[in-house]
Amino acid sequence: MFDQILGLPAHPLIIHFAVVLTPLLVAVAAAYALLSRRRAYVAWAVVLLSLAAPAAVFAAKQSGESLRSARFATADGALGARISTHQSFANPLLLSVVGLAVAALLLVYATRPARDSVGGDRLGRPVTLGLSVLTLVLAAVAGYFVFRAGDSGARAVWGS
């Protein structure tokens, strides 16, 4: 499933979704955590990106594993080292994006007013503050790993 798309290796095509959606999730989740007065405007984007970005990263990881086993299983030397470095960022990226998505979704849930209340947070101010901090930390971690994965992938392909 993650090997080819129309006869082309799937990984170079699929990674573009992860490379675009993950930084968008990082930015939108951070904005949601920091800009409490603007939350109503970006809540829908947080929810959609929290669903799409982890799926894109998972697909990129799986397609990368398929590409390596199909075309680079015997790669050694400098190319093998570059591929291994690139591959080493796959699991941390996936875990950090899933963590960010869960934290962001919980933050959206926590900040939605309850039906029987006039205002305020659904789970209380301390929980909302904690989720905001967690979201910001995970956004920074996911941003770091998406950069490192993308950079190491480009270096693996272009050899510098």
From TrEMBL:
Chain coiled-coil ranges: none
A Pfam family matched in the record: DUF2231
Segments passing through the bilayer: 12-35, 41-60, 89-109, 129-147
UniProt key word Cell cycle: no
InterPro entries: DUF2231_TM (IPR019251)
Keywords (A to Z) from UniProt: Membrane, Transmembrane, Transmembrane helix
Residue ranges annotated for the DUF2231 domain, each copy included: 7-158
Key word Transcription regulation present: no
Protein's name according to its UniProt entry: DUF2231 domain-containing protein
Naturally occurring in which organism (per UniProt): Nonomuraea rosea
